[in-house]
Entericidin EcnA/B family protein (Alloyangia mangrovi), 38 residues
Amino acid sequence: MKRLFLLALLAAPLAACGTVDGFGQDVSRASRTVDSWF
């Protein structure tokens, strides 16, 4: 179950952005979001 969740978490941004540049922006946005939690 944990593995499926991680796979979905990694696959969603790739499906949403469609480009390497878009993926980089998504990763950067996600890291800022997680950083704001702490």
Summary: Residues 1-36 form one domain.
